[in-house]
Specification:
Elements (H helix, E strand, L loop, with lengths): L2 E6 L2 E7 L5 E6 L2 H16 L13 H9 L7 H19 L9 H14 L2 H20 L12 E3 L5 E3 L1
Antiparallel strand pairs: 1-2, 2-3, 4-5
Length: 163
């Protein structure tokens, strides 16, 4: 599947084919790093877990723009409501971030930050929109795992609720 070739005195290149058949490569300074990468790539390709590293660098806003153009089975009122949440809460924080750089701590910090200013239901709805979009990125094979799971949200009674 993958193979290592020596490029120079201290450079090694791992070459492999992605699931679509395109040739990919990555260069390393140490042979041990190249061997480790080769083993990882072969494992991911063999188990259909390979994620295109270039696709994961797409920004969150680019992903939502392309995804929004394909959503056909949503009522217009729902579309406008989601767009409002996106404009006011989600995109200011995550719009320019690459999908593979959105982490669990960054999402939790965002939830905590907007919870100081917004009603509990608004926080939950904003989070659910973000979580749904990141789940779709997982389904499309752009990221391996969504960072959105088991968050604590404020409630109107001052208690926390896990979803």
């Amino acid at each position: 599947m993958a193979h290592i070739e020596k490029r120079s005195e201290r450079r090694y290149r791992v070459r492999y084919r992605d699931p679509a058949g395109a040739e990919r490569s990555k260069t390393f300074a140490r042979l041990t790093e190249a061997r480790r990468f080769k083993a990882t790539i072969e494992d991911e390709l063999g188990r259909n877990l390979w994620i295109d590293p270039r696709a994961a660098k797409m920004t969150f806003e680019e992903f939502t723009t392309t995804l929004g153009q394909r959503r056909l089975h949503v009522r217009p009122a729902t579309t406008e409501r989601v767009a409002g949440f996106m404009r006011s809460q989600v995109l200011p924080t995550f719009g320019s971030m690459p999908l593979n750089k959105i982490t669990r701590p960054s999402v939790q910090m965002w939830v905590d930050e907007i919870a100081r200013e917004l009603a509990p239901r608004t926080v939950r709805d904003s989070y659910r929109i973000l979580a749904g979009l990141l789940r779709e990125a997982v389904r499309q094979g752009i990221i391996r795992q969504s960072p959105c799971y088991s968050y604590r949200f404020p409630t109107s009674l001052g208690r926390s609720r896990v979803t």
